[in-house]
Amino acid sequence: SAVISQKPSRDICQRGTSLTIQCQVDSQVTMMFWYRQQPGQSLTLIATANQGSEATYESGFVIDKFPISRPNLTFSTLTVSNMSPEDSSIYLCSVDTSGVADTQYFGPGTRLTVL
Amino acid sequence: KQEVTQIPAALSVPEGENLVLNCSFTDSAIYNLQWFRQDPGKGLTSLLLIQSSQREQTSGRLNASLDKSSGRSTLYIAASQPGDSATYLCAVRPSPNAGGTSYGKLTFGQGTILTVHP
After folding, report:
1. A63: Cα separation from own chain's centroid
2. A5 contacts A108 by C-beta, under 8 angstroms
3. Mean pLDDT in runs of 10 for chain B (118 residues)?
4. Which of B31, B43, B109 sits opposite A106 (nearest CB)?
């Protein structure tokens, strides 16, 4: 299994500002993912972050809005840039253990409110 | 494009009932299917994972089945308790043979909101 922590757990931000969310895993993993969950909705994948390469973004998400860093095999950051109220969501990181179970594990999420 | 649907959207039952949550998916080229639980405002807890070659998995009062050819999975909860109240999400992972960079990406259903009242 994998234990994942995220910082901050929640934040309230002003329109036009940026917030960087950190994701830390207790073991080395190859693939990390960032998801968004808008109020009352299910999870949507933003991007896949692999160490040593550029993140791969899903349709509808762009690097300028959601820059991602992956400096090593246990850590990643997601920045939500130039925020608007529509960015109010829970942001979750997850990891792929790629082991026997192939289970994906999720962090506790970061609840973002943009005023 | 994979689409995942969960029925019902919400379910309210008295304590002690056995219940079934349904999940269907449109593309049978999956690697595995995972059931998650999400408490309000929280992250996801993995409940069960079924590989595409498996028919079912059990953990305690939970049993998940998979019929890959028909694109369906069910989550059976026996003797429900108030502590089972949460949103239950199913998610499918594409087969590596699907190609591209989609391997690892989970496609989620909208979830079933379960309320078990005393």
Report:
1. 13
2. yes
3. 93 96 94 93 89 94 96 97 96 74 79 96
4. B43
